[in-house]
Amino acid sequence: MSQGTRDIEALIETMARLPGLGPRSARRAVLHLIKKRTALMAPLATIMAHVAASARECSRCGNIGTEEICAICANPARQTGEICVVEDVADLWAMERGQAFRGRYHVLGGTLSALDAVGPEELHIPRLLDRIADEGVTEVILALNATVDGQTTAHYIAEALEASGVQVTSLAQGVPIGGELDYLDDGTIQAALRARKRF
Amino acid sequence: MDWRDQGMLLSVRTHGETSAIIEVFTAQHGRHAGVVRGGVSRKIAPILQPGAQLDVAWRARLEDHIGAFTVEPLQSRTGVLSDRLALLGLNAVCALLHFVLPEREPHPALYVGSLALMDALAAGDDWVPRYLRWEMALLEELGFGLDLGRCAVTGGREDLAFVSPKTGRAVSREGAGEWAARLLPLPGVLMGQGGGSPSELADGLCTTGHFLEHRVAPALGNRPLPEARRRLVEALARAGRD
């Protein structure tokens, strides 16, 4: 195998490690990149090298950006006194896609897990408590997953914030938009019924 | 190799990009692991929450393979998500069963007791005394059962107030004498007398916790007890104070 072929094979092997790609799809992607190397591969390589050098965690909220403070935390218009607590950066990005929340975020970096021995120390909960004291926060919105681990974490944070006097709320749980009752599990129906509102 | 059974889900871990490895506690096959293909999909992931009651079919080419499960939900028990203490209770039950049970060894009596406790947790019934009795049953099942019938010193059945931390046998006030401070508390709730006040329940958990920590855990390779139990005990103590 020549050096050139080895490099391409190495690229395919690396690409195949990405989520959603296997060896065959990585091979297809690499072939596509090589065919479009001027229009696609070279700019992709440049931007990847740039992001690899500059990507970092926001020192306030835990979001990923290329500056010490992310664009959301740096935006004074988002200083609404509300902090939305999410498990992961992917959840933050999902909330931003919704464009419904105009406050700031706090990324925990995981959830409490009994089996994986993830305790409060492994999450960014102390940093959240510091922010509440420093940033004049009036409401903390717990946007954690409706799973056993997610809700265990939500209850833990709510309890940790009791003494701070800040209002603690959580996302509603129930019937999703476009959801049909017949296809919902009994737990979701129970939650929806408990959270019913005047129509 | 294949079988079908019902069981409660103890744990879920993602396996690759699309699958999950779950552990279920079943009546006839004990704690059993297996792969669920597509277990992290939007359709199946909501079913695979710890505490859920599942109908599981296990299949593998050889007995000692991990094998694959197909799962059908029977009862989700997600009602506990909004109840902080019950959620901690559910976490503690799942974590302790995961911690103490050997794989693929049936414990039908413990299964029935665990099922009843899970249902009480989901229903929000008065589950704390049941949890305490479940921990006693767990100790019994593992061979570390408490002998609370009569005093280890005097042989009497009256005024039993302590448990020996070494033998797990009851001790009366008279039998304890000056050793009382070194003995574990024996609240009435441990002997099935009433539902128990918060302080009695805390005493009971202190006693069962001692045997879990100093007898069961060392026998299982000296691993620390699951954090979930400590969190439950602390939360119950706080709730009792409030």
From TrEMBL, chain A:
It holds the Pfam family RecR_C. Residues 81-176 form the Toprim domain. Keywords: DNA damage, DNA recombination, DNA repair, Metal-binding, Zinc, Zinc-finger. CDD domains: TOPRIM_recR. One of its GO terms (molecular function) is DNA binding. InterPro entries: DNA_Rcmb_RecR (IPR000093), Rcmb_RecR (IPR023627), Rcmb_RecR_Znf (IPR015967), TOPRIM_dom (IPR006171), TOPRIM_RecR (IPR034137). A zinc finger (C4-type) spans 58-73. One of its GO terms (biological process) is DNA recombination. NCBIfam families: recR (TIGR00615). Belongs to the RecR family. This is Recombination protein RecR. It comes from Frigidibacter albus. The lineage of its organism: Bacteria, Pseudomonadati, Pseudomonadota, Alphaproteobacteria, Rhodobacterales.
UniProtKB/TrEMBL annotation, chain B:
GO terms for biological process: DNA recombination; double-strand break repair. It holds the Pfam family RecO_N. One of its GO terms (cellular component) is bacterial nucleoid. Keywords: DNA damage, DNA recombination, DNA repair. InterPro entries: ARFGAP/RecO, DNA_rep/recomb_RecO_N, NA-bd_OB-fold, RecO, RecO_C. The keyword DNA repair applies. Residues 1-76 form the DNA replication/recombination mediator RecO N-terminal domain. HAMAP family: RecO. Involved in DNA repair and RecF pathway recombination. Belongs to the RecO family. This is DNA repair protein RecO. The lineage of its organism: Bacteria, Pseudomonadati, Pseudomonadota, Alphaproteobacteria, Rhodobacterales.
